[in-house]
Amino acid sequence: MNFFQYTEAKTARDAIKAKQEKEASYFIAGGSNLVDMMKEGIQHPQQLVDINTISGLRDIKNTGDTVYLGTLASNTAAAESEKIINFAPLVSQSLVKGATQQIRNMATIGGNLMQESRCPFFYDVSAACGRRTAGDVCPTVTAKDGIRTNALFGLNESCNTPHPSDMAVGMLALRSKVVLQSKKDTRKLALDKFYHIPVKENTKITHLQDDEMIVGVEIPLEHGFNHSAYLKVRDRKSYAFALISGAAALNIQTGTILNAGLASGWVGTIPWRFEEAENFLQGKAATESNFRQAAKIAISDAQPKKNNAFKVKLLEKILVRTLLMAKETPYGTNN
Amino acid sequence: MKEEDKPIKTGFSRRNFLQVSGTGVAGLAVAPLLGAQAAEQKNLERPFEVPNAVDIQLNINNETIKLKIDPRASLLDTLRYKLNMTGTKKGCDAGHCGACTIHINGERKLSCLTLAMRHQNDKITTIEGLAENGVLHPVQQAFVDNDAFQCGYCTSGQVMSAVACIKEGHTKSTEEIKEYMSGNICRCGAYPNIIKAVQAASK
Ligand SMILES: Cc1cc2nc3c(=O)[nH]c(=O)nc-3n(C[C@H](O)[C@H](O)[C@H](O)COP(=O)(O)OP(=O)(O)OC[C@H]3O[C@@H](n4cnc5c(N)ncnc54)[C@H](O)[C@@H]3O)c2cc1C
Ligand code: SF4
Ligand code: FES
Ligand code: FES
Prior knowledge:
heterodimer; A: alpha+beta; Uridine Diphospho-n-acetylenolpyruvylglucosamine Reductase, domain 2; Enolase-like, domain 1; five-stranded antiparallel sheet; four-stranded antiparallel sheet; B: alpha+beta; DNA polymerase, domain 1; 2 domains; 7 helices; binds flavin-adenine dinucleotide; binds iron/sulfur cluster
């Protein structure tokens, strides 16, 4: 690990200022991802700006129209908060399927959203990787048949690896917004506008600017979701990243879907939302046959290669099952 | 042990020592007029002073400890190699196994993914801090009573995790214990008895 300068920030503005003063500066929150990458020699910060020392960013609030999570709330605090469990249970449902209690105790909201790739070639510093070095063309892009872990959506020659977060998928289905602060002001970005698919020019997948910091996430309550479920399918039952996950939020009134949120983890280079399928479900009866049709719509533009082709069928089934689970899980019954 | 591997100063092998003084010799060759010889001699007195070392203070098991560390050091390495508190184990050193589980302000966390210098204002508890007046903590005792280990390598992490798991209240069913203890891998597969021990201690 290289040496780095270490700066403790007292306010978000201080943190941004310190970060801008030095090249290769990184915010550090829980450190559960960044310290790992520093040890692996994947990232080489010249400065760590500790944001854990900032007060007032841990709150979890219900403002009536939204549930708000401060960026420094731990993943455990968020998963176990009554406000989350009662008003946005999908966040809790997705969080508890991620990592382990030790890691969730360390992990923060912003750190979770910003967590890096889990691609084997990303971790192999001797391999080419466009997410470590902008412009590199990696083995998974050139492999004719792809590799098992490749994503199905949002692919390009820059990167093929799926985004690893569970929480982000739950938040995406709930149409959450990321609250970003810069030196001058704050802005909100819907989660699906916060992430962008990988590009050649740099290693980023978010629109977070150099002079910005995540201060929280806002979950709007206006969509009236009253049922939700998160289904994580993986190679072992616990403590593993997903093979594919599904997140569904439904506003069901007397059997009719007034509003649907549908997203998936580990299938897109960024957390993937199925907007067309959501639109299809709106106004339909909450029945299995409608769920099947929605899932068909969702998979219609998947881009599999030979080695991950099985995931298309799997995704379809997972989406149907997630929607069925959601229908059976009104708010207030699952946690 | 080969002659060259014999420690010549606490914790440092002769091989390392030779490497470091070798660097001094190279310096001497290119810059004989810059007092490199004096520098080398200083090196010999304290050959392994860490560059950029920082003075920190940690509160471990209710004791305040002042020490000088490499700013990059994990809490795990600081405990094991600086403080000789080897109860906390290093398995994967990458967050995957749970062997290094400790408590920070009462919450279980992984010391391998923790920079020691970020925790100067926190209360750290390790396996060495569980027993009181020579009496094992009830969870430690339950592990002994239930034969909840084989080789024992994962055990301190399991126990630290179990103490927190019980305090959190995640022991309502066998399923819940399994889920909330899943961050602690046991290579020997002592899981059934670990679960029994957690169940016994939670009553
Ligand atoms: C063994 C293991 C298993 C895991 N399994 C899962 C899993 O199953 N599912 C899952 O979803 N996750 C999993 N994770 C990942 C885990 O969720 C992340 O490591 C964690 O959420 C990162 O949060 P942190 O606060 O520790 O981030 P840090 O490590 O502190 O930071 C991560 C990144 O986010 C940036 N950052 C942090 N806060 C901010 C902010 N406020 N504004 C801007 N940038 C910021 C940092 O600069 C850094 O680049 C696993 C991790 C490990 C080690
Ligand atoms: S798929 Fe993405 S993360 Fe993996 S090696 Fe290629 S560029 Fe890197
Ligand atoms: S040594 Fe820390 S989790 Fe394995
Ligand atoms: S007892 Fe050997 S690893 Fe658990």
